[in-house]
Amino acid sequence: MQQPVNTDFEVRSLDALCVNESRLQHRWYHQLKYLVIGILFGILFVKSEVISWFRIQEMFRFQSFHMYGVIGSAVAVGMVSVALIKKYRIRTIYGEPITFPVKTFHKGQVVGGLIFGLGWALTGACPGPLFAQIGTGATVVIVTLLSAIAGTWVYGRFRDRLPH
User: Which residues cross the membrane (predicted)?
Assistant: First the structure.
């Protein structure tokens, strides 16, 4: 018996990929808001020291609560935000509904998380603050950025053959 083929949306909703089904078209300058938010977010990363290699090493050595407090605060804000969006059926600023596809747990997530954490501990950087670190003058992080890009490419290349 042949299994039915999933639609593209069904396959993408099973992954950790962003599923944006918006059909709205905007002019190029509508994207400037993301540039401004990214710059402000980078400043926040620098000022809160979450891009500091030393702070990250303190976290992995259990020597400081700083990073755990920042990460825990972000998780709490995210949980409250998602609960409020679901409860009040909040829409985007363009009136589109916000949906959260149901995700299932896979053992590959544990392996991926361990690889991610190992890379984070070794390099002192996760993908979020890479550009902020480079912007502060830590140009050696360009190696980490190129490695992240290569890893993303490798995953995309072999994604269909990996256990999800």
Answer: 32-54, 66-85, 110-132, 138-156
